[in-house]
Amino acid sequence: MKFIIIGGDAAGMSAAMQIVRNSSGHSITVLEKGGIYSYGQCGLPYVIGGKINSTDKVIARTQQEFKEKYNIDARVFHEVKSIDSEQKLVMGIDHSTGESFELSFDRLLIATGASPVIPKWEGSSLQGIFTLKTIPDTEEILDYLYKGFRDVQEVTIIGGGYIGIEMAESFVEIGKSVTIIERNNQLVKIFDKELSDLIHDEAKRHKITLKLGESVEGFIGDGQVEYVRTDKAEIKTDLVLVAVGVKPNTAFSKDAGIVTGVKGAIQVNSYMQTNVEDIFAAGDCATQYHRIKERDDYIPLGTHANKQGQIAGLNMVNLHKTFKGVVGTSIIKFFDLTLGRTGLSEKEAEGLNMPVSSVTIQARNIAGYYPDAKKMTVKLVYHKENHKLLGGQIIGESGVDKRIDVLATALFHSMTIEDLLDLDLAYAPPYNSVWDPIQQAARKAT
Ligand SMILES: Cc1cc2nc3c(=O)[nH]c(=O)nc-3n(C[C@H](O)[C@H](O)[C@H](O)COP(=O)(O)OP(=O)(O)OC[C@H]3O[C@@H](n4cnc5c(N)ncnc54)[C@H](O)[C@@H]3O)c2cc1C
To answer: What are the C-alpha distances in Å from 136 to residues 46, 52, 89, 165?
Structure first.
């Protein structure tokens, strides 16, 4: 069979590797519009912040490796422009030669990811305004910072989501003065307001200026950006990072009759199949089934892209496996804090008209009498009537990661608040209290 994969990163190459490992005698061609394969975008903020000293370090496997070691026809600068689903053809341009190409397939995977959005703001084409998605984006930001285009002191970040705050930390780490503009009245709105207040305090502790409830209208400058104009002020700036969200790269697939769903992402079933036979989709360009909402959603994350890609690859070679869905788990480092969340926030659950209760507690990550015990805030959101856990949010300096993963597992298996109390969790004073903080919260709830 002839397999074609569009997109050479997390989802696309996870699929390619499953095809290689689980079948033989097929041809696999990967069409990647950029020049780099398989890299961890998640590491890019830390390259800018100097914790990782080169973008090379985030590359998992090179184009060459895929070609030589795995016999994958991995092409670069090949951008797909359209698909003919009846004739089973993909058409596009090879940017290295400027020539067009047309290739036939038996099975196709669309793994084209998502692109950062820049709203139609006046002055967006000024120099010094960036988004962060790829290694070339990272190199451009580093060049602007260090190659003498300008003495960058003041950085403005537009958007207080997870990329916005990770980048705020990175810019502070390299000595910049940072302002975050966020049109909502809180940063990281996947947390409920009382928890995001802890994030605001941490930002202020690191001298980040927060402009909440403020909307960007445009940029002012002469060649280079000098001010961000909002509905309330003009903010002087040397560099702007726009991190207001992403949209799935699906424009080229519309004419092929491939149905899109939530937020324009390609609608897939649990086998990663689209509505068109023999065409699959996975990762940031596709929908994900949300187990708590019990419907499709769009949560573009690396964890989902790797899983969905792997499952697509298996199904493409008829080894049937289903994607079991997501529960909405994520974790973010913000200076000394770890921010973990899973499931639904209270606000989200209310928005879905669920009868919801919640409990918030403060606890210690380890036995209170043991040195260096740190405070953490735990919020559990649960169904008022059947007590099923609906979500959890934890913010603290240490031990957040393991608790949020326990909650994610509990959610995955539809556990109740009472069930949490029955869990046999690890305890010794340097690691926990005899009742884990999530059990302390569950006890308060019951
Ligand atoms: C700064 C940053 C930090 C992140 N941090 C985290 C994190 O901590 N945890 C987490 O889970 N996720 C994180 N993510 C998200 C994660 O990186 C993405 O979810 C993941 O990369 C998606 O993988 P993908 O393969 O679906 O898409 P992508 O990685 O976007 O890959 C899609 C590929 O398709 C190519 N392509 C697009 N259109 C075409 C076309 N027409 N023709 C040919 N090729 C095309 C693109 O060039 C790209 O290489 C982060 C993302 C960023 C940008």
So the answer is: 15, 16, 30, 21
Predicted confidence band of residue 114 (pLDDT cuts 50, 70, 90): very high
Angle between helices 437-445 and 400-412 (to 10 degrees): 50
Look up residue 116 and give its two tokens. 């950062």
359 lines ligand 1 (CB under 6 A): no
Mean pLDDT of 398-411: 98
Does pLDDT of 18 surpass 80? yes
Q: Which are the contacts of 290, defined by CB distance < 8 A and separation ≥ 6?
A: 296, 297, 299, 325, 326, 327, 328
The amino acid at residue 390 is L
Q: Is 6 in the pocket of ligand 1 (CB under 6 A)?
A: yes
* CA of residue 274 to ligand 1 center, whole Å: 20
pLDDT digit string (tens) for 313-339? 999 999 999 999 999 999 999 999 999
CA distance 169 to 167: 5
Contacts of 56 by beta carbon, 8 Å cutoff, 6+ apart:
none
Ligand 1: which atom is nearest the Cα of residue 114? 30
At 320 the three-state DSSP class reads coil
User: Can you give the pLDDT at residue 149?
Assistant: 74
Query: What are the distances in angstroms from CA 43 to CA 6, 49, 154, 190, 338?
Result: 23, 10, 23, 21, 16
Per DSSP bridges, beta strands 337-343 and 356-364 are unpaired
